[in-house]
Amino acid sequence: MDKYYKTGEFAKMANLSIRTIRYYDKIGLLKPSKIADNGYRMYSDRDFMKLQKILSLKYLGFSLDDIFSMTVNDSYLSLQQSLSLQKKMIDQKIEQLQNIKLSLEKTEQFITQSQNIDWKAILDNINFNTMEQDLLEQYKNSTNINIRIKLHEKYSINPIHWFEWMFSQYHLDNGMKVLEIGCGNGELWQRNQKNIPNIQLTLTDISQGMLDDAKNRLKDIKDIDYQCFDCHQIPYDNQTFDIVIANHVLFYVQDIEQVLKEINRVLKNDGIFYCSTYGKKHMKEITDLIKEFNPKITLSNIKLYDVFGLENGKIILEPYFKKIETLIHDDYLLVNDVNDIINYILSCHGNQSEFILKDYESFKRYMEKKVKNEIKITKAAGIFICRK
């Protein structure tokens, strides 16, 4: 049976003032688990663990607004996962502070050794102004990706997992040189690690934080080359790779034509390019729910399937590849937990937090009313197989 604490008891346990607890309640950062019949606001042990996380992130230098967005969808996390994420944040913060210290030491040497101070060079060297934001974005991106993956893992009807299905389409043979652009957290390779032949695998991402996640996830797989770069300029010679892979990446790049030129350039003459995307109907029921709640909400700042989707992808690819095959992963979701849908919505790239977090309880009540028992959610995802 859960144990509950009054506001004063809860504040004393955390060595905080009652005023602070009440303020967190007021802004929606930490609501009590229940309100007793006599009106007392009652906090649980789980609330205490969330408070511990809030204080940990606050100590790391994040604003309350940032902490709100980083903790509002924590319901999908187990206690162990939550603590693991916090430890990771602290490790990254330590690394960040070490980098700042090195930057300061280099700047000190630069000033000592130079008679004419080049302030531009100094500012270029002290590049830690953006480190805090980078750390925040990495945390949010990694967490949000995991939330979206877990929704599909938990509720997909097709017994063949998306990553397993995609991997089964790749024609991988021993000795091949394989490049993945935008590898993210490396889930594709972890899930299929027992079936990976003896290939020369290069995993890349524009985010060093994502690459670090992939390295940690794939530490049992030897001889993977990890490279951080922008795929608009791929730093490899012509005709280097037998296979290039880009899963749900092309709709994020600024210049698709330039990226496809680069992919074509580094592919061998008989090479194959595999790229996945989704179509206009993908997760449309969630979009419909959001639009009914507030038409101003968009789950993505742009319609990614209009940039590169199942409907227009072949036309975009045709100038660069002579033969293109389209395969669709036949699947849909049956979701019976409204919290998982809410977490998914909050993990998206759009402006939803701006509207939802202002009155989260109202939004949750709306979703509970709409998703009473179970909801079927359309999936429209597939892969293009492109031969040079």
> Briefly, what CATH class of the largest domain?
Alpha Beta
Beta-strand content estimate: 15-25%
> Helix-strand pattern, N to C?
EHHEEHHHHHHEHEHEEHEHHHEEHHHEE
Main sheet specs: 7 strands, mixed
**Residue runs with pLDDT of under 50 for 5 or more positions:** 128-136
User: How would you sum up the global shape?
Assistant: globular
Q: How many strand segments?
A: 12
| Average pLDDT taken over every residue | 85
Query: What level of helicity do the residues show?
Result: 40-55%
> What's the end-to-end separation, in Å?
63 Å
What would CATH call the homologous superfamily of the largest domain? Vaccinia Virus protein VP39
Structural class: alpha/beta
In the CATH hierarchy, the architecture of the largest domain is 3-Layer(aba) Sandwich
- Rg computed from alpha carbons, rounded to a whole number of angstroms: 24 Å
Output the number of helix runs: 17
Domain HTH merR-type: 4-73
GO molecular function: DNA binding; DNA-binding transcription factor activity; S-adenosylmethionine-dependent methyltransferase activity
Organism: Longibaculum muris
Keywords: DNA-binding
